[in-house]
Design a protein that fits this description.
Layout (H helix, E strand, L loop, with lengths): L2 H4 L13 E7 L5 H8 L4 E7 L4 E3 L4 E3 L2 H8 L5 E2 L7 H8 L5 E5 L7 H4 L5 E5 L7 E2 L2 H7 L4 E8 L9 E8 L6 H24 L15 E2 L15 H10 L6 E5 L2 E12 L9 E4 L3 E5 L3 E10 L5 E2 H6 L14
Parallel strand pairs: 1-2, 1-6, 2-5, 6-7, 8-11
Antiparallel strand pairs: 3-4, 7-9, 9-10, 12-13, 13-16, 14-15, 15-16, 16-17
Helix pairs in contact: 2-7, 6-8
């Protein structure tokens, strides 16, 4: 008797109850509602979770699991794998030893090796964009930065490319134009959980086909860097306001003030006033603070100075003893 037969597993990756043995790969918060929904799906049995290793967090560098690792523990999932490199031969073998018939991925952060793409039911990825628009590492910030008025969640069958696999299903989402990255990601995560829930059964039964992505409209994103957070006064106020909303929580946005860096958590675009030069920090209504940009002023609504707490721009200005002289020189 084979090892698979001994544990009631069929060669097509189903268990004795004809549920498809499924491994979930994810690390970030986007995957949390998806994994939660997947564990209750009647067509699959979760046999393992793959996530990034725990990392030190906070001042005391406490070793902390990923949101997916924490959820897997709370759900009582026995097998949680945390390889540093999923492409390492021992990591691949650890996943294959679970005899999965399907892999589902959401916000994992590593390239999935070829052997895990060739499972009987493939590897499905939930991507928070209207593919082929915004492939890559930062689709939600890119959507906000571009001022898109619509986005989507795409369920695709993964191939060896970067978000290039054929599309299984897609759910369109209208945008209001005031979304922050964390709020939009949370909203799309709920849409993704619903999309997977209604698509998984038809996919496993062969009633849902995957369609190649369009060759037109392809755009790519890259991982965000700390330097991306600088608010450049040469840009328009509309672009800068979107940047503030798009780059939360990482890398955040900032300007250089008279006493050091000022983090910006919320901002508002205002018209220009005569005689103001781009780059200057100027009074906003006599109390608050604004940065002059190429076509207007960016009101700094919620800020944090170095070593300080989060506060309104008005509170920050009141704390400057030599206001307004301290900001007359503008930004470095």
């Amino acid at each position: 008797m084979s090892e698979l037969a001994e544990r009631g597993t069929h060669v097509d990756g189903t268990d004795a109850g004809d549920r498809v043995r499924t491994v979930f790969l994810g690390s970030g918060t986007f995957g949390v509602p998806i994994l939660r929904r997947l564990t209750s799906h009647s067509d699959v049995a979760i046999v393992g979770v793959v996530t990034a290793p725990p990392r030190p967090v906070g001042r005391h560098q406490v070793l902390t699991p990923t949101p997916i690792g924490a959820l897997a523990a709370a759900l009582g999932i026995d097998t949680v794998l945390s390889p540093r490199r999923l492409r390492a031969p021992d990591a691949i073998e650890s996943v294959r030893s679970l005899a999965p018939g399907l892999a589902v991925l959401a916000d994992y952060g590593q390239i999935v090796p070829e052997p895990l793409l060739e499972l009987p039911h493939g590897a499905l990825n939930l991507h928070p964009s209207a593919l082929p628009r915004w492939r890559g590492a930062s689709p939600v910030p890119a959507t906000i930065l571009a001022g898109d008025r619509e986005t989507a969640v795409t369920l695709m069958r993964m191939d060896s490319g970067l978000d290039t696999g054929p599309i299984v299903a897609q759910a369109r989402v209208s945008l209001d134009g005031d979304e922050t990255a964390p709020a939009l990601e949370a909203r799309l995560a709920g849409v993704a959980a619903d999309l997977l829930d209604r698509s998984l059964g038809p996919w496993l039964r062969g009633a849902l086909d995957a369609t190649a992505q369009a060759a037109e409209g392809v755009t790519l994103t890259r991982p965000l860097r700390r330097a991306d957070g600088r608010l450049d006064p040469a840009r328009s106020t509309a672009e800068l306001e979107r940047q503030v909303r798009a780059l939360q929580p990482w890398p955040g946005t900032f300007v250089e003030g008279p006493s050091g860096r000022i983090k910006v958590f919320a901002a508002e675009a205002l018209p220009a006033l005569p005689g103001q030069q781009p780059g200057a920090l100027v009074p906003d209504g006599g109390n608050g603070l604004a940065m002059v940009a190429s076509d207007g002023r960016l009101r700094l609504v919620e800020v944090q100075s170095e070593g300080g707490r989060r506060m309104t721009g008005t509170e920050l200005v009141r704390g400057l003893r030599d206001w307004p002289r301290a900001i007359d020189g503008g930004l470095p």
